[in-house]
């Protein structure tokens, strides 16, 4: 385990990273929010179907 090599690779990655612009940040937020809503809606549909089936929840 070469600690010096690991640290230099971490520093190199941090130097390449940049702060996103407001437009990029808001677009990522919208996409992530849409994914969360979609997964929640899918879970609700599964719960609704299972509650109507005999022996469901």
Class based on secondary structure composition and strand pairing? mainly alpha
- Our Rg estimate from Cα atoms comes to 22 Å
Query: For the report, how would you describe the main beta sheet?
Result: none
What is the strand content? under 5%
Shape: elongated
Order of helices and strands: HH
Q: Mean pLDDT, nearest integer? A: 90
Poorly predicted segments: none
Helix content: over 70%
Span of the ends, CA to CA = 51 Å
How many β-strand stretches? Answer: 0
Contiguous helical run count: 2
Family: Belongs to the SecE/SEC61-gamma family.
GO molecular function: protein transmembrane transporter activity
Main location: membrane
Protein name: Protein translocase subunit SecE
Secondary-structure topology with pairs:
Layout lengths: L2 H14 L5 H31 L5
What keyword list fits this structure?
protein transport, mainly alpha, membrane, 57 residues, elongated, 2 helices, transport, 79% helix, Translocase_Sec61-g
Care to give the gist of this entry?
The protein has 57 residues and is mostly helical. The protein contains two helices and no strands.
What does the model show?
- This protein has helices at 3-16, 22-52.
- The chain has a domain at 20-57.
- The protein has 57 residues and is an all-alpha fold.
- The chain is elongated, with a radius of gyration of 22 Å.
- The N and C termini lie far apart (51 Å).
- The protein has two helices and no strands.
């Amino acid at each position: 385990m070469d600690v010096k090599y690991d640290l230099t690779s971490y520093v190199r990655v941090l130097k390449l990273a940049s702060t996103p612009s407001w437009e990029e940040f808001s677009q990522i937020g919208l996409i992530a929010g849409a994914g969360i809503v979609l997964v929640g809606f899918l879970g609700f549909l599964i719960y609704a179907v299972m509650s109507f089936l005999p022996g469901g929840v």
